[in-house]
């Protein structure tokens, strides 16, 4: 029996993880669940999954959860509050695996704490890896932690080269990685209309049901930019070894092109329970609840080159990873600020890339080889992005 802590339990990945966990009560026990401010959502999950701990990262919400728990059938659950409590539950002795499913930079510190404690990290929170890069990977290596990718593309790549991933012999056998992308909701929208698209249109992903931030990232294709950086880090390849391929059906979740001419693809219905179940059962497999792929219904599959004029964020991500140092941290921070401003209707969709580009132009690729340097760059980039947004004409 493995103990699992789900950071970000109330989100899209958290809910899918609990669905998979519930199918395997003989293999997994929920030790801790965390949310930011969603008291009702976390309380409902506590009633069903009865963890030992429930954490409200927004400490001001903890008393509301405490009151509900105290008056319920699960009154023995310990309710903790604040960001430090995330680290506490991610490193508990009876936690074997953590699902890192907090959105954005807020997930870095608890996920890093779990890595340093030698836990198995089921990594959905790509921003944590992108912003901290080698620091995170070194922490995993130093502690003998196990890092398993949840992001559907990286999980697919892992499935197509598991031995190489675990032995570090990737570079010799692999010609390139084909990183698939849906193209998002604006793949065919006339370019002139992109200035006026709304947050609701942007979060209406054609294939995946996800949180709002990652959905906007898919619409700008910054999601693929972050995933490019994630792939370079996880699989120890260069940016030019990763080809982004738009595949609107989202049935192939990525491919690996080997030097002998073999191209291995992982396919399946677009449902995150598949990569979650793969990582949770690894190196075995178990049921995820996902319906079998009806290949006849799929019928055909299309592949396109990404248009960097339509998707400038993808170009910015290539520039950031090639520049190295703090630039991926700066890219990620500026993107988080710009996406939130777009969701809050403070800026236009097309301003997102402009804010990121202008923020990046104010930084040079200085060293990112300590957590302190990373966190400083992250904060400075957020400040710059904020001031650029404030300076935009109304
Ligand atoms: N959704 C998907 O299919 C995929 C997601 N990912 C990645 O997984 C991560 C989660 O995505 P997704 O589930 O869609 O996101 P959601 O927005 O649906 O969920 C985010 C979760 O994080 C919690 N959270 C938000 N802010 C904070 C904070 N400051 N401190 C602590 N907890 C916080 C939320 O709590 P609350 O509910 O209380 O606000 C919620 O539980 C992202 O990094 C995303 O890129 C990767 C691949 C696919
Ligand atoms: C499900 C998943 O892994 C997402 O990251 C997905 O890739 C988003 O779709 P896009 O390909 O449109 O970014
Ligand atoms: Mn993905």
From TrEMBL:
GO molecular function (one): NADPH binding
Domain 1-deoxy-D-xylulose 5-phosphate reductoisomerase N-terminal: 4-133
GO biological process, one term: isopentenyl diphosphate biosynthetic process, methylerythritol 4-phosphate pathway involved in terpenoid biosynthetic process
Keywords assigned: Isoprene biosynthesis, Magnesium, Manganese, Metal-binding, NADP, Oxidoreductase
Reaction equations catalysed: 2-C-methyl-D-erythritol 4-phosphate + NADP(+) = 1-deoxy-D-xylulose 5-phosphate + NADPH + H(+)
Binding-site residues for Mn(2+), renumbered to this chain: 151, 153, 227
Binding-site positions, 1-deoxy-D-xylulose 5-phosphate: 126, 152-153, 182, 205, 218, 223-224, 227
Protein name per the record: 1-deoxy-D-xylulose 5-phosphate reductoisomerase
Organism: Methylomonas paludis
Gene for this chain: ispC
């Amino acid at each position: 029996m493995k103990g699992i802590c789900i950071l970000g339990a109330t989100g899209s990945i958290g809910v899918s993880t609990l669905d998979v966990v519930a199918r395997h009560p003989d293999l997994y026990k929920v030790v801790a669940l965390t949310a930011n401010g969603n008291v009702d959502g976390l309380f409902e999950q506590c009633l069903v999954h009865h963890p030992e701990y429930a954490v409200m990262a927004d400490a001001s919400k903890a008393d509301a959860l405490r009151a509900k728990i105290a008056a319920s059938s699960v009154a023995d659950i310990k309710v903790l509050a604040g960001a430090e409590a995330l680290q506490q539950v991610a490193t508990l002795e009876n936690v074997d695996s953590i699902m890192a499913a907090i959105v954005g930079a807020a997930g870095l510190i608890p996920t890093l704490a779990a890595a340093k404690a030698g836990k198995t990290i089921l990594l959905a929170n790509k921003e944590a890896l992108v912003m901290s890069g080698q620091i995170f990977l070194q922490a995993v290596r130093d502690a003998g932690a196990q890092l398993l990718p949840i992001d559907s593309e990286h999980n697919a790549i892992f499935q197509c080269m598991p031995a190489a991933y675990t032995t570090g012999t990737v570079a010799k056998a692999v010609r390139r990685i084909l990183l698939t992308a849906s193209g998002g909701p604006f793949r065919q929208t006339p370019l002139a209309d992109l200035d006026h698209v709304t947050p609701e249109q942007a979060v209406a992903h054609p294939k995946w049901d996800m949180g709002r931030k990652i959905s906007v990232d898919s619409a700008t294709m910054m999601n693929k930019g972050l995933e490019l950086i994630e792939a370079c880090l996880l699989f120890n390849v260069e940016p030019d070894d990763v080809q982004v391929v738009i595949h609107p059906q989202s049935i192939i979740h990525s491919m690996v092109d080997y030097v002998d001419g073999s191209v291995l693809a992982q396919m399946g219905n677009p449902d995150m329970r598949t990569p979650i179940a793969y990582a949770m059962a690894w190196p075995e497999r178990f049921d995820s609840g996902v319906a079998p792929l009806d290949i006849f219904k799929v019928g055909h599959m299309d592949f396109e080159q990404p248009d960097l004029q339509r998707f400038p964020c993808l170009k910015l991500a290539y520039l950031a990873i090639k520049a190295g140092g703090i630039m991926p941290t700066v890219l990620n921070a500026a993107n988080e600020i710009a996406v939130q401003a777009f969701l809050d209707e403070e800026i236009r969709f097309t301003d997102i890339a402009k804010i990121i580009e202008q923020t990046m132009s104010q930084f040079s690729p200085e060293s990112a080889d300590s957590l302190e340097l990373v966190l400083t760059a992250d904060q400075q980039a957020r400040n710059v992005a904020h001031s650029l947004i404030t300076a935009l004409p109304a």
